[in-house]
Amino acid sequence: MTRRTPGPRTAEGRLPSTGSRTRTAGGRTRARTGTAEGRPGTAEGRPRTAEGRTRTAEGRPRPAEARPRKQIHLAVHVPGVDDTAVWAGGRAGSQIAFSSFAHLARTAERGLFDFFLLTEGLRLREHKGRIHDLDVVGRPEPLTVLNALAAVTDRIGLAATVSATVNEPYDLARRLASLDHLSGGRAAWSVATSSDAFTGENFRRGGFLDRAERHTRAAEFVAAARELWDSWGPDGPRPFAHRGPHFDIAGEFGVARPPQGHPVVIQAGDSAEGREFAASAADVVCARYGTPEAGRALSADVKGRLAAYGREPGDLRIMPRVTVVLGDTAAEAQERATEIRRQQVSPRKALLAAEQVWGVDLSAYDPEGPLPDIDPDPHAAPVRGRARVGDPSAVAEQWRALSRAKGLSLRETVIETTARQSFIGTPAAVAEQLDESVLGGAADGFVLVPHLTPGGLDEFVERVVPLLQERGAFRTEYRGATLRSHLGLPEPVAKG
Predict the structure, then answer these.
(1) Residues in the annotated binding site for FMN
(2) What pLDDT digit, counting tens, does each position of 74-87 carry?
(3) Sequence ranges of the binding site
(4) pTM of the model
């Protein structure tokens, strides 16, 4: 009798599967049972029904294949101008060195993220001549950084926040088209509107537009840029002419049509004006995440507006910004989240937050002492570079009630009322929460904002992404080369 020789065994002593396997972002492998998305493939050699379904061993038709499982989209937003960055501790690195940007972008690409988003700060935020103590100073211009990152990454999308208030369509359309060509179709533009004269003082425009008009200008800006990108045909450039209330430009565009047709457009707010702009012009909405209920309401509202612009729900991705804090246990994760929040709210920052509510100088108050016992000034101008809260008296009363109930100091009250951690828990718990949020319609995916630069995404990619892949909720490889392919968005058809 011939004795069978067993094949090679895994480290755990099991025989390897005969099927192909896909390596996850964390270095583990998972069986590929059918299609690239992990859905069951067709049993080879089995007879098919007239509808193309296979039959069971007993000859009965198999049920029709279920709809593909909804996949999570992931992106990363570099911290530094949004009150998220943590500076203390040995793990915090440079916020302005190219090596930091490269590390974060490569980590996100290793995790198979859709895109890397770098925001800009058009003016240093200051109060009474003092720069905000936790803000980044000296960060390079975003598109310049992304052009350099295009050379050290292969697949991840590269997105920059650029203001539509202080720029011009021809120049920005040219820079974005250039990035799309240099990166092989990975460029994206997060459209911002500069909100006040404080920022406008750095530009000749000043603060000349009210809130509604800023969004009107942004929508026309995007339309004009798309006209420029579409002005190149197979035979080269055609003359373009855009006539509108904000822009009157004509000529020939100097860069060939981008590989994606149009770079992806991201909208980053959830105001009424921002939602209408997103429905008319955006490919991705990147608002702040609150609760699953709020996410479902936002998604239903924005996607419900698409039909008025001849668009389908699948033409837009809702990807709110979130933070994640992990721990080996739920208690450890919560402890880490509390410490992170204390580092994000310095004593000076706590006083500044209170001044946004009370509208008066509170520099004489002790941030570790009680809240001010005076009434807010409802007519005070906002702190420069900051927005005033909507109803100062109501907010002050809410803070006082919380402070009395929990015995909190001024700083502790600010920490409690401005908590930013969206998902806190073990890797398994966070993976489940992210998956359930997407399956429940609260979002199509998430833009992660790490607390640390450059290594703040490492743990998520190593510990959470593999769990999402095992759930069948996240890709195990990139299926295309462009950002539009990662997001599942069609390439725009050129007009004109």
Answers:
(1) 161, 271
(2) 999 997 666 677 76
(3) 161, 271
(4) 0.81
